[in-house]
Structures are given as C-alpha cells and as structure tokens.
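Reopening this ticket.

The earlier resolution said the output was attached, but the attachment link was broken on my side. Pasting everything inline this time so it's all in one place.
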Amino acid sequence: MSDLKLLTERLIENKKAEVQEKIKEAEAEKAQLLEESARNLAEEKAKQISLIDSRLARKFEQDKHTLQINKRNQLLSEKQKMLKIVFSKAEEQMNQWTDTEFQQFLLSVLKQHKGSESIELIVGQYSVDKVSNDWINKVAKEEVNIQLSTETISKKNGFILKKTGIEYNYLFDELVKDIKGQLVSSVSKQLFD
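Inline output:
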C-alpha cells in the first residue's frame, strides 16, 4: 500500500506539475494577448490621432485659404471703391470748370476738327451757360465752321459735336468712362504701389 500511496502521490505531483505548466502557458498566452491588444490599441490610437491631425491640417489650410480669399476680395473691393472715388472726383472737377476752362477745352477739341465743313455743337444742360453764341462767333468760328444748337442734352455736362451725320461725344461722364478703361492700371499703381 505504500507503493500505491507513493504512486498516487507521484501521479498527483505530475498532475500538479501539468496544471502548473498549463497555468504558466495560459498566463503567458494571456500576457501575450494583453501585449498584442495594447499594441493594437496604441496603433489604432496613433492612426486616429494621425487622421485627426490630417483633418485639422486640411481644415486649417482651408480656413487659411478662405481668409486669404476674403482678405484679397476685401482689398480688391476697397481698391475699386477708391478708384471709383478718384474717377468721380475727376468728373466732378470737370463739372466745376469755369467758363474759361470749358471754352479752352472746347476750343482744343474744335482744333482737332479744323477744316471740317460744318459742325453742330450740342451742349449739355449743365454746360449751357459756359458757351454763348457771342463766344462761338468771336472765337470758335476762327477755327471751324460751327453752329450752336438750340437743343441741349438733359442733365449732362459737356457737349456733343455733330459732323456729317457722326456724333463725337464729349459729355464729361462719358469721357471719364472712356478714359477709365485706359487709366485704371496706371492710377491703381500710383494709388496702391
């Protein structure tokens, strides 16, 4: 019986050793799974952080680009307002010409039409007082054959010359509008550079 007892004790010890070995293997597997899970979580966290960073970077770039566009548009709008003011002031100054300044301008235009058979002068409503038949007869007729029309152009400054069916428009608002296209770039450079 002592052999049986010894054999039973050895079997129990072997089983205990086997169980202990299985426990060690299970703990090692558990540790490996925990380590692998921690590594996977760390990788996923890094991916998520990277994804969030790239989204934030894209959003930042979009916002930065939007701000730059808004700033450029606002600057452009301010420049356009300034240019409009400049050209409005130019027209305003022309509208305030004295009789002498208006007549000098008219005379310089008439000299460009020297040698023409007959020219009809139609004056804007606000410029009627700046040219008289007397001035036409004394000064302008020395340059060209010109007749002052009784017709006026409503609510305008300046004049129109009619020559052989062709109208030459020297109304101040139209002159400024025509010259504006030619001068915008040079005026912009002087104002904003």
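Reporter confirms the inline version is readable. The first helix runs from residue 2 to 95. The mean pLDDT is 88.
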